[in-house]
Amino acid sequence: MTVAQRYRIAVAGERELDGCYAVRREVFVTEQGVPEHVELDAYDAHAVHLLATSQCDGRPAGTARILYGAVARRKYPRAVTDDLTAVLGRLAVGRSARGTGLGAALVRAVEDEARRLGLTHVYLEAQTHALPFYERLGYAAYGPEFDEGSGIPHRAMRRTL
After folding, report:
1. Residue 113: is it exposed, middle or buried by C-beta count within 10 angstroms (0-12/13-18/19+)?
2. Which one, of 9, 93, 6, 96, lies nearest residue 49 by Cα?
3. Cβ–Cβ < 8 Å for 130, 115
4. How many other β-carbons are positioned within 10 Å of the β-carbon of residue 108?
5. What CA–CA distance (Å, rounded) separates 126 from 91?
6. For the whole prediction, is pTM greater than 0.85?
7. Which helix (H) or strand (E) holds 73?
8. Domain named N-acetyltransferase: which ranges (predicted)?
9. How far apart are CA 118 and CA 44, in angstroms?
10. Nearest alpha carbon to residue 157 among 136, 128, 126
11. What residue spans define the domains of the chain?
């Protein structure tokens, strides 16, 4: 069964946001110990959220968010200096959906939405253990390792669309 047969990925509307937040709480808050006030931030109100739901039961399985424009420049002033860069963030796949290809499908969905918005680059801050995953998808790491506030080491990555 393909990822598309298992999951539906779409831009989340107001009613679907709880599903996005539930996946993020499961992955980042419960599993990784990120404080909820760090994980769910004020930028969520200005983001484009993507939600992957199971085709079988409609349950949330994965999510990602996109920041761009003035909001992205405000949150990432050293990395985003133009209006053509999307910031891929809060990529999370629930435990039951891991290993299915859903993570890569979510990244590609973010890229498709960025293109639809007229953006030409994607920037992200990857947990260092996830660097090979993003590299397989065409992202290049740069700069030193850093802590973006969660206590988990990260590296900056970029890809031209």
Report:
1. buried
2. 9
3. no
4. 14
5. 9
6. yes
7. helix 69-75
8. 7-161
9. 21
10. 126
11. 3-160
Per residue of the chain (161 residues), what is the pLDDT tens digit?
899 999 999 999 999 999 999 999 999 999 999 999 999 999 999 999 999 999 999 999 999 999 999 999 999 999 999 999 999 999 999 999 999 999 999 999 999 999 999 999 999 999 999 999 999 999 999 999 999 888 899 999 999 99
Give me the CATH topology for the region 3-160. Aminopeptidase (3.40.630)
In the numeric block, the tokens 């405000």 are attached to: 74
Residue with tokens 């039951």: 96
Amino acid letter, 31: E
Rounded CA-CA distance 116/148 in Å is 28
Distance, in Å, from the CA atom of 69 to the CA atom of 46, rounded to the nearest integer, reads 10
93 to 3, 21, 29, 33, 121: CA distances (angstroms): 13, 12, 13, 16, 23
Distance, CA of 68 to CA of 85 (rounded, Å): 6
